[in-house]
Amino acid sequence: MQTIVQTVARTLAEEMQRDERVVVMGEDVGKRGGVFLATEGLFDKFGPDRVMDTPLSEAAIIGAAVGMAVHGLRPVAEIQFADYVFPGFDQLVSQAAKLRYRSGGTFNAPMVVRMPAGGGVKGGHHHSQNPETHFVHTPGLKVVYPSTPSDTKGLLKTAIRDEDPVVFMEPKRLYRAIKEEVPDDPDFTVPLGKAKIRQTGDDLVLISYGGSMAETAKAAEELAKQQISAEVIDLRSLMPWDKETVLERVARLGRVVLVSESPYTLNFMSEVSACICEEILDSLLAPPLRVTGFDTPYPYAQDREYLPGPNRILRAVQKVLEY
Amino acid sequence: MIADKQNFSPFNEEPISLISQAGEWTAPFACDLKDEQLKTMYQQMLAARLMDERFIKLQRSGKMSFVAPHSGHEAAQIAAAHAVRVGTDWLFPYYRDYGMTYALGEPLIEIFAQVTGSRLDTAKARQMPMHPSSKELNIFTGASAIASHIPPAVGAAISMKIRETGQVVLTSFGDGATSEGDFHAAINYAGAQGAPVVFLCENNRLAISVDFNKQTGAENIAIKAKAYGMPGYLVDGMDVLACYYVLQECVENARAGLGPSLVEAQVQRFGAHSSADDDSIYRSKEELEQMRQRDPLLRMRRFLENQGLWSERDENLFKKEILGEFQAIIDTLAEAEKVPLEWMFDDVYAEMLPHIAEQKKDFLG
Ligand SMILES: Cc1ncc(C[n+]2csc(CCOP(=O)(O)OP(=O)(O)O)c2C)c(N)n1
Q1: Does the pTM exceed 0.90?
Q2: Domain B35-339 in this protein, CATH class
Q3: Out of B128, B182, B215, whose CB is closest to A124?
Q4: What ipTM does the predicted assembly reach?
């Protein structure tokens, strides 16, 4: 049994063992083992050349990772909080994302940028954000956001082995909230772009990913008590995302509620909703509803209320069922 | 190193220090501060230390979600507050600077309201603890994103220059912050503009766990000033009077149109990085013991005692008084109402946009 954060550390260790080109870099990832302990034990095992404490500069971290990747390493860079990707955003968007395209496919950057994201930890606007829309909106980046220890292992391995830059978002409020048995196989991988049906159901579909999966699962439990059977889908990967599974499952039941804690406007679920409406409108029995964070900076005092919690999800479900 | 008062030479190799560990005045010029001000400086250092201890207790009892202790930084912070013209000059501090903002006159009730996320917080409990903000005192509202406040500090200074207001900006940050692009972009611009700004690096040689020598290949931060076209001073950050005299000279030079400067105060971080950190993973007890021998409070206290300005009795009386003040404030805050839910939606824009109004209405039902 292991938590998400333990799984990150163990998976990194396995991948570093397997492939000596894999290096870990970031602020406090060395002796400290990362501020969340996501790199615990790596420094002792692999030493300072493969587990590098960097200067406090996200531009240096992401930009240098591009250079290392181009030159033959497989860097896994940690951004201490997703909120701090912005000083390194230029490197991510201008360099990493466009490298393959602008070189006509002659250069590429196989690198992973890991970052704990999401609210519910009393962190205010600079320790709670979910910036996935920025990444998804940047062609050239792949984006992953698991919600369980096993998926963390499988997706992190796939991301490290991928030939393109992958932004690997980690749901920090679930870092230690869930424990599960994780497959031992050092080659256990989960493909990017494949959703996971967490629970099948007959009345409506709930779709979510990352930290919001916890509230979505809670809402599904509540619904079960009311004899409403919800199907629960975890997207896991946002770029690419599993449109096929989503369209098929939503078409089957005709009702869907989309849950994600980043702000409402241009929330990733806006894209999912648009695709559903464009492609399977005839199968819908109600308009897809989004339950999201608000279009405000992430608050401090109302840390929990900002999140799309079970009550808000249930209200949307009711609307969709009664439509 | 020091020609005479108000005339320190930049790019010094040994940090400027004016009082010895034993509390003796060692400078070649006379200390011209009034007894009252010297006492106030020490009292503020002591209050800042006690505030830190109180914060940690509040955090442990669940009344604060987070603390970044400033113990060991008091001399630099209190000196900075005395070097500027309060209410005229502008401050752009960072999250470890509550000692500084307290000494600037930020009322304790405001400080405690901020760190406990109270309804009485002037910033409406929008920020994590350790984010000072005061419109009245020209203290720019804090931001957790390291170094992101330094370019705005320079912008304010350029505005002061263009508008000939005679004001000065003082901005402070840690050694880790000097690795961020924002720091370099800002200090470069300040140098090019000759903007009236003083950069104060509170160098505790740690950024959470990362050692100073991983942050830069340079021997210190002060020498970086050279490349930006301004003087850089290395100061013993555990010596409040050294910090004061150097900062004061830099502030007045900036006011006189002589441009910006960079001051590196070599301080120590006595506590963990924050309440979320465990520093035993990366430094030893012995290291800490050694640091504490150089406690800035001890040095200033000895200095005052040598002058007959302070006694054990004064110490005890002052402690009692300030702890009483803390308690009264904590009691007041305990009675404050909860932060209203609807505050979440305000202040995104000057006027609430329709879609946010809709979300608010929907949320509040
Ligand atoms: C842009 C950014 N990256 C990372 C962090 C996380 N973080 C918070 S404090 C800190 C270390 C800061 O060290 P330093 O600037 O030396 O100041 P000190 O805390 O030592 O006073 C880090 C990495 C952050 N707040 N902002």
Answers
A1: yes
A2: alpha beta
A3: B128
A4: 0.95
